Amino acid sequence: MNGKYEKETICIQSGWKPKNGEPRVLPIYQSTTFKYETSEQMGRLFDLEESGFFYTRLQNPTNEFVAQKICELEGGVAAMLTSSGQAANYYAVFNICEAGSHVVMSSTVYGGTFNLLMVTMKKMGIDCTVVDPDASEEELHKAFQDNTRCMLAETIANPALVVLDIEKFAKAAHDHQVPLIVDNTFATPINCRPFEWGADIVTHSTTKYMDGHAMCVGGAIVDSGNFDWGKYPGKYPGLCMPDDSYHGITYTEKFGKLAYITKATTQLMRDLGAAQSPQNAFLLNVGLETLHLRVPRHCENALAVASYLEKHEKVAWVNYPGLEGNRYYERAKKYMPDGTCGVVSFGLKGGREAAAEMMDHLQLASIVTHVADARTSILHPASHTHRQMNDQQLVEAGVAPDLIRLSVGIENKNDIIEDLKQALDKV
Questions:
Q1: How far apart are CA 332 and CA 206, in angstroms?
Q2: pLDDT in tens, 128-175
Q3: Of 254, 287, 320, which residue is a domain's last?
Q4: How far is CA 262 from the centre of its chain?
Q5: For residue 2, is it within any domain?
Q6: Are residues 282 and 340 in the same domain?
Q7: How far apart are CA 144 and CA 147, in angstroms?
Q8: For residue 181, how many other CB atoms are within 10 A of its CB?
């Protein structure tokens, strides 16, 4: 690509570029291994002296082309696919952290991410301090420590729908000489490109809008190439010092702006193996080709649904950043002028019991753990995705006991509203 195409064209044309007589559609390279003519060639690949494919756990052509497309959509320099969004966030953090490191994280991140940092990675010797995403700059600064190695937040929090002040978080991170990692799953690069606002690394659960059809679990990490790891060798020895596990390579010296993704691939994917399958990457690419069409429809429908719910007598409250009067409306207009996402949260006056009853009466919308695909779906996070949290943690995460997460699909908006109406009538 020439770097001048708009996002709509990138969705269709980026990544796989067939040559004369080659398949028009991205092929599935359903092979674990790749043949070479000489031992020397293979050796040079293992020494990272040449680029190429030798084992699908590390790299695969199908995966590589899809990663290129996501990289271009986000405006980064390098990207990699992972087996899930959880794996993407884990790799993104662990690539620059080790036992004794510290992370600053927004309190409203997805429950799985919260548990990953606060429980699992804590067992690995990595500590985490959570901060209110709406905290003042002064409060944010207090969370950093000498051993802080990164800051993590979500563009739009799942399911609290907090819109991140990316510039404020980026400034805080950079003031403390660490990168800002932003999970951009809900906004997608169609509505927001965090690199343009100072973020350094972006992650995705490609399982959501990017796939868009609930067909394949996956994740992605994109590096902006903007954070200068070499300025802080004491903080990032894994990138700035020789890697004894890989022929003594110093990633920043050998790969420059590609150092972060190269290390994540050659070291973490080598040792931990959370690789995306080529079949899933193929399906993900199919989803990406319509991402620019689906996301605006999700946003249009969600705004219509939120406006309907806001006026319903049985609804206690509605949270959607696209609604005028929402606490994040102005911030959303700044960072996502074309729309936020298709997820609406709300509560009923009857509380938890009324929520469960209403959900059971829905006919078009389905009760599923998934979110952000073409079909309208609904969930009660406190009972499902966030049930591992205690009440205090739920409050900190912005998940009220009565919160209903409605993922508005791309069906006709009138049909979605009618389904909600008939279900609410029975409560």
A1: 22
A2: 999 999 999 999 999 999 999 999 999 999 988 999 999 999 999 999
A3: 287
A4: 20
A5: no
A6: no
A7: 8
A8: 27
> Residue 216's domain spans which residues?
15-287
Check: CB of residue 377 under 8 Å from CB of residue 371: yes
Beta partners for 33?
Answer: 55
Is 55 in the same domain as 164?
Answer: yes
DSSP state of 373: S
Report, in angstroms and rounded to the nearest whole number, the Rg of the chain calculated over CA atoms.
Answer: 22
Residue 39's identity, in one-letter code, is S
Parallel, antiparallel or unpaired: strands 377-379 and 366-367 = parallel
Cis peptide before 18 (omega within 30 of 0): no
Kindly give the interhelix angle for 291-311 and 413-425, rounded to the nearest 10 degrees: 30
Nearest to 81 by CA among 94, 101, 67: 67
28 in the same domain as 161: yes
Q: pLDDT for 103-134, tens place per residue?
A: 999 999 998 999 999 999 999 999 999 999 99
Nearest to 113 by CA among 235, 238, 204: 204
Measured CA distances, 275 to 92, 119, 329 (Å): 14, 23, 38
Angstrom distances, CA of residue 227 to CA of 26, 150, 178, 200, 268: 32, 11, 8, 6, 20
Token pair 């028009």: residue? 24
How are strands ordered across the β-sheet holding 404-407? 315-319, 343-348, 404-407, 377-379, 366-367
Tokens standing for residue 58: 């590390």
Smallest CA-to-CA distance from 321 within 167, 154, 111 is with 154
DSSP β-bridge partners for residue 220: 81, 204
Please tell me whether residues 245 and 262 are part of one structural domain. yes
Token pair 């319509």: residue: 290
Encode 264-284: b = buried (16+ Cβ within 10 Å), e = exposed.
bbbbbbeebebbbbbebbbbb
Q: Is 265 helix (H, G, I), strand (E, B) or coil?
A: helix
Q: Which of 145, 144, 164, 161 is nearest to 153 (CA)?
A: 164
Whether the full predicted model's pTM is greater than 0.90, yes or no, is yes
Strand 180-183 to 148-154 pairing: parallel
Out of 249, 265, 287, a domain closes at 287
Q: What are phi and psi of 423, to 5 degrees?
A: -70, -40
